[in-house]
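Write out the 3D structure for:
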Amino acid sequence: MDICIGGTFNELHKGHKILIKKAFETAGVDGLVYFGISTGELLKKKNDVKSYAERKKIIEQHIINENYASKVIIQPIHDKYGPSIDGDFDAIVVSPETYKTALEINNKREKIGKKVLKIIKIPFILAEDEKPISSTRIKNKEIDEEGKLLLRD
């Protein structure tokens, strides 16, 4: 099964790792996992984002460390859809934060006569304080990449 996922992946955290794991599990040994990494206009509202090359290297190292077997393509995406609208994918793996975009993708795919993607939504992965793990919270030094609290109220 060919899978697509996308995001900024600025601070590779536990939530990202679970998303990536689900993508590889779903793809299976013979499937393709396409990573779209946000660039350009998609990053204008975000502060302190690592370079595309840095984020790509971190993802590649994670894939090697986890011994994922599927074929992988990692490329920059310049809008929130990337190749997901016209690409030959079977499914998309998303978080609750990006679920709405997956619905938009399927709507656009239907309009151009492409098969809709199976949407696989993982839940938010929560930190110790029961709030979602996010790159912003990690950058603000509230939590670490695993969701452990760094600042106490």
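The chain has one domain: 3-123.
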